[in-house]
């Protein structure tokens, strides 16, 4: 129920970072199977795919960033990027909206404000 919302761009970025990490771990794992060339090849390919995937995700973030609207967060006064109609502040997770009709509505049910 208390699902935690995060800034979309930040979320995708941490996913891309995790992919790089997983890719390197998988490639490192290949060392333990160096006796079996086929396994090494599979691990190396999987690791490489993760890293390539991460590069693609990073490129996608770049594309999304150009479409995101830069706003000043009313809560922490820092510049953050809003993607779509509603998004969270990158720094303080304050819910932000570009649509005045959604002001204070969309996140109230699921966003845990009482945490402060
Ligand atoms: Zn903020």
From TrEMBL:
<keyword id="KW-0812">Transmembrane</keyword>
<dbReference type="InterPro" id="IPR020912">
    <property type="entry name" value="UPF0295"/>
</dbReference>
<dbReference type="Pfam" id="PF11023">
    <property type="entry name" value="DUF2614"/>
</dbReference>
<dbReference type="GO" id="GO:0005886">
    <property type="term" value="C:plasma membrane"/>
</dbReference>
<protein>
    <recommendedName>
        <fullName>UPF0295 protein EC501_09075</fullName>
    </recommendedName>
</protein>
<keyword id="KW-1133">Transmembrane helix</keyword>
<comment type="similarity">
    <text>Belongs to the UPF0295 family.</text>
</comment>
<keyword id="KW-1003">Cell membrane</keyword>
<keyword id="KW-0472">Membrane</keyword>
């Amino acid at each position: 129920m208390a699902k935690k919302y995060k800034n979309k761009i930040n979320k995708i970025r941490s996913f891309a970072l995790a992919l790089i990490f997983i890719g390197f771990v998988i490639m490192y794992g290949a060392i333990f199977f160096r006796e079996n060339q086929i396994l090494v090849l599979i691990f190396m390919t999987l690791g490489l795919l993760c890293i390539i995937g991460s590069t693609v995700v990073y490129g996608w973030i770049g594309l999304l960033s150009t479409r995101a609207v830069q706003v000043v967060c009313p809560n922490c006064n820092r510049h953050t990027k809003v993607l779509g109609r509603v998004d969270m502040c990158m720094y303080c997770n304050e819910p932000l909206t570009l649509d005045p009709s959604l002001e204070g509505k969309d996140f109230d049910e699921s966003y845990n404000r009482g945490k402060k």
